[in-house]
Amino acid sequence: MTVSRNGPPPSTRWDISPPAPGEYLSAVTYPPLVAQLLYNRNVGPDEVPAYVDPDLFTTESPFVLPGVSEAVDRIYRAIREGETIGVYGDFDVDGVTSTAVIVEALEILGARAIAHLPDRFKDSHGLKASGVKSLRDRGARLVITCDCGISDLAEADKAAALGVDLLVTDHHVPLSVLPRAVAVVNAKRRDSRYGFTEFAGVGIAFKLMQALFYGDSRAGLLDELLELVALGTVADMVSLTGENRQFVQKGLKVLNSSKRPGVQALIRVSGLTPGSISSGDISWALGPRINSAGRLDDANMSLRLLMTDSEEEAQSLAAELDATNSERQTLTAEVYERVRERLADQPEAPLLMAADDCYPEGVIGLVAGRISKERYRPTVVVTTGEDISRGSSRSIPEFDMASALEACGDLLVSFGGHPMAAGFAVKTENLPRLEERLIELAQERLSGVELSPRIRIDGEVRLKQLGGDTYKLMAELEPFGQDNPQPCFISRGVEVLKCRSLKNHERWMSLRLRQDGVMWEAVDFRTLRRPEDVPSLIDVVYTVRTRRWNGEEVLQANVQDFAPSAL
Question: FRET pair for 552, CA 20 to 30 Å: which of 202, 208, 270, 300?
Fold first, then answer.
């Protein structure tokens, strides 16, 4: 049902969740519709209180994480002996916030901490010995990585040769061999006994700082860093369950009353309202602006914004990031059109891959993501260079891209990432072989698999059921994100009273819907259909949001898909 702008349109499947058992509905002290949402998210009746109230959620000791005890001992020795501690981050939101968390926490303890963020265009992702050397030359003999390092075995060996003690904190999947380091803190280590594994890099960094502050009277000051943890966790699209959910719940409270001049300025340039910032606002407004510096310019701009005490500097940096983000949006759209045209002759390919020296490295991941969603195929976009080419990929749930790249490790200079998003560097001469190998893997692993996007629907409702206090109660399930999706509903037999294209966006629509005498406004940014393609009676799949109208908040449907109604 979703119309693709390139190649044959994949048919979208509507997966409607089965009704919750009666005993579950009876055991949960919420109205049936909200209880159904909890049931769909696998929240047991006894887990509901802690799901809603983060203060009731219990966590494991950070010392259960492998490598934490050794890391704490080495950091405290550095503090006692007055050593300079280097913090080596990454240039995305997760890496920037991880760096800020560690630097600020160390400074609370009186340590001298200095930061290094790699340059996307000179260094690419991951730990680089040149960056470690830069920190060493500035006085650091202990370097803590965050959001990187777990698979950089050769670079870790080079760091040791430089006389630097390396302490790796990372959340990516380790290889069979760990890097050479004083300690490796990672919940995904094979020997880990920690119950939760899906942290972002900033979550692992924060857990280490919790251990470092254990028993210290200043431990409560760490709570002020939770807004950074929330920013990095949501932006990195990790699972918003377990401890991540608690981090974001608490972090949003700090964020909504932030004392950071940089966060305040960023909220202003994003057009958001302090006090009502949601996880969605991080995903669509704050995160992209923080990310834009590392995509097109220098990620240190974002780090300075988050850490500055100067309102004047914060205002200037926020304005610069806002402008950079606008440039990023324009560039992404241009490259997307080029890649889309390049891939037009591959309608049946199990994996899509496009490479060119005119694709700017800073946006190829975003372009791959758009193509992958549109075509519902694993997609790889590569910036080719004379000697080395760099690629970024986005995938679908049926294909583990990180595993596929690992299987191609003999062809790659470096690689890393997640099942749904991964990057790599490859000698340009090996690029054709890499494409051939990835397509073969996709053919093998996707053989017999029906490749069609799915919309997971929480239940069938009438529009009138979502009025009153229902929406407010649904909001208690925030923050929404990965593995805790925004509630999605289907209403059948809905009248379309009005439908028009939005100004300057002919493939986006504004609709007025009616059912049982109840009228709703709706927007459609997803299906890419035209007003003339919309029947007068539809079955519509949608999420719900609020908007301001005549000074009041009203509900609005965000259309995900629709079809002619059989009613």
Answer: 270
3, two tokens: 């119309």
80 sits in which H/E element: helix 68-80
Whether the pLDDT of residue 442 is over 80: the answer is: yes
pLDDT band at 121 (very low <50, low <70, confident <90, very high): confident
**Do 426 and 443 contact (CB within 8 A), yes or no?**
no
Q: Looking at residue 12, what is its pLDDT?
A: 86
Whether residues 117 and 203 share a domain: the answer is: yes
Determine the residue type at 75.
I
Checking if the pLDDT of 2 tops 50, the result is: no
Q: How far apart are the first and last CA of the chain?
A: 18
Q: Are residues 499 and 461 in the same domain?
A: yes
527-543: per-residue pLDDT in tens?
A: 888 899 999 999 999 99
How far are the Cα atoms of 13, 120, 160, 184 from residue 149, in angstroms, in the given order? 39, 15, 13, 9
Residue 551 pLDDT: 66
Token pair belonging to 559: 């259309």
Per the CB < 8 A criterion, the answer to whether 443 and 350 are in contact is: yes
DSSP string, 383-407: E--SSEEEEEEE--TTS-HHHHHHH
C-alpha dihedral, 312 to 313 to 316 to 321, nearest 10°? -140
Residue 322: name the closest of 345, 297, 284, 290 by CA. 290
Name the residue type at position 452.
S
Strand partners, 196: none
pLDDT digits 0-9 by tens, 153-203: 999 999 999 999 999 999 998 988 999 999 999 999 999 999 999 999 999
Residues 339, 360, single domain; the answer is no
What is the C-alpha separation between 100 and 87, in angstroms, rounded? 9
Residue 468 has pLDDT above 70, yes or no: yes
Residues 317 and 431 in one domain: no
Same domain, 170 and 293: no
Tell me, what's the pLDDT at 4?
35
Token output for 184: 């490796």
Expressed as residue numbers, the domain containing 531 is 13-46+454-564
Mean pLDDT over residues 57-65, rounded?
Answer: 95
- Give a yes or no: residue 292 inside a domain: yes
Strand runs labelled E in 37-193: 84-88, 112-116, 140-146, 165-169, 183-185
For residues 296, 301, 303, 307, the Cα torsion angle rounded to the nearest 10 degrees is: -160
d(C-alpha 245, C-alpha 247), whole Å: 5
The two tokens of residue 266 are 């960023």
Within this chain, do residues 156 and 214 fall inside the same structural domain, yes or no? yes
Q: State residue 505's pLDDT score.
A: 76
pTM value?
A: 0.91
CB of 79 within 8 A of CB of 109? yes
Q: Which two tokens stand for residue 169?
A: 């904190």
Mean of the per-residue pLDDT values for the chain? 93
Contact 399, 426 (CB under 8 A): no
93 lies in some domain = yes
Query: Which residue type is seen at 288?
Result: P
Q: Within this chain, do residues 465 and 375 fall inside the same structural domain, yes or no?
A: no
Regarding whether 366 and 339 lie in a shared domain, the answer is: no
